[in-house]
Amino acid sequence: MGGWAIAVHGGAGVDPNLPEERQEEAKRLLTRCLEMGVAALRSKSLSAVDVVELVVRELESDPLFNSGRGSALTAKGTVEMEASIMDGPKRRCGAVSGVSTVKNPISLARLVMDKSPHSYLAFGGAEEFARQQGVEVVDNDYFITEDNLQMLKLAKEANKIVDPNNRPRDMRCKCRGRNQRHYFSIANERTPHQCLCTRNRRLRGGGQRGQVRGRDIHWGLMNKMSGRIGDSPLIGAGTYACNLCGVSCTGEGEAIIRGTLARDVAAVMEYKGLKLKKQWIGW
Ligand code: GLY
Question: Superkingdom of this entry's organism (predicted)?
Answer without folding.
Answer: Eukaryota
